[in-house]
Amino acid sequence: MRMRDFTFCCPTEIIFGSHAEEKAGEAVVKHGGSRVLIVYGGQSAVKSGLLERVEKSLMMAGLTVKKLGGVQPNPTLSFARKGVLEAIPFQADFILAIGGGSVMDTAKAIAIGAANPQTDIWTYWLGKETVTKALPVGCIVTISASGSETSDSAVLTDDAHKDKRGLNTPFNRPCFALMNPELTFTLSPKQIACGVTDILMHTLDRYFTPMQGNELTDALAEALMRTVIYYGPKAVQNPHDYVSQSELMWAGSLSHNNLTGLGAEKEFAVHQLGHELSGRFGVAHGESLSAVWQAWAMYVYKEDPARFARYACNVWRLETVTDIDTAAREGIEATVRFFTSLGMPTNLRELLGRQLSFAELYELADRCSRGGTRTVSKFKPLAKEDMLRIYTTANQ
């Protein structure tokens, strides 16, 4: 089976290193902005002085600035709509995100909504309309996790209906990303661990596909995963380790700009399963992924045990195992041990502090399958009953 045809374009300009955030004004001007809506999360950007430094850089570049704070983890549709209503009368022509994936995804949604004021943004996330224009977005990254700073995706949760969905469009690609690893030094070990899990899963969800003979892309994916596995625990142990934080920050961007999946079909089965958990229960995105990964992997690995065995050998270096099935299972177990070592949940009981009822599990499967109207994944297509089995296994 030959490599699939693909088109790859990642136009995001990366400005990486110490004090990168101080180049915000210069970067916005370069990309045509004059009236900038800054979108950020909680008070950490204020307390650390980051927001002040960025605003100063913008003002010195002669830009008009408006600030909008308050983005929460698992970004909500209601807040994004609020941002659109702020951006339009301000006549924003550039959206600047300061934060992690939640802030960046919110900024992308605001950029789409402000450029299309006659259309409610959720219409695009539901697939009822196609995005044809958006305001430019720039990102100042404060956590290594989502890779949203270089990706074409944005995820929102309809908080009124607990419906979490993603939107992929070229118009979601940021113009630039300012990436200073020192901005991650204030993160808690749990935040870093969740980010490490998300980075790893962005490539795992691309790696396990039916595609064979995609050697260069596979090798790039394996190298990225080895890097994350090596430096992730170091960053959790010492958040001020610049080397580890820089490796994770760069890995996060590369893991979600589509590079590690080129030539293969995009899978994201675990992300789809995890989205229902974070949408329904409000748990951290990274935790929702680690909580279902083992159940998913054990359910699907016999579709291609050699693929899982390759993962075990090339990523985990389990080269002494000769039996393919054993190697496949040991690679899965090594991944689960890694999540545990980071303090991440590996089942629903660890994630939520209790086991779910059958009705709750059924609701998750029903939502993920859109009421039984869709399947996810090509590696092993998952219908509603498959999803229910995976959720049930993760619940044990």
UniProtKB/TrEMBL annotation:
CDD domains, A to Z: BDH (cd08187)
Coiled coil: none
Boundaries of every Alcohol dehydrogenase iron-type/glycerol dehydrogenase GldA domain copy: 11-181
Cellular-component GO terms for this entry: cytosol
Pfam families listed in its UniProt record: ADH_Fe_C (PF25137), Fe-ADH (PF00465)
Domain Fe-containing alcohol dehydrogenase-like C-terminal: 195-394
Keyword set, alphabetical order: Oxidoreductase
Keyword Oxidoreductase: yes
Transmembrane segments: none
Keyword Iron: no
GO molecular function list: alcohol dehydrogenase (NADP+) activity; butanol dehydrogenase (NAD+) activity; metal ion binding; methylglyoxal reductase (NADPH) (acetol producing) activity
Family the UniProt entry places it in: Belongs to the iron-containing alcohol dehydrogenase family.
PANTHER family, per the entry: ALCOHOL DEHYDROGENASE YQHD
Protein name as annotated: NADH-dependent alcohol dehydrogenase
Native organism: Candidatus Avelusimicrobium gallicola
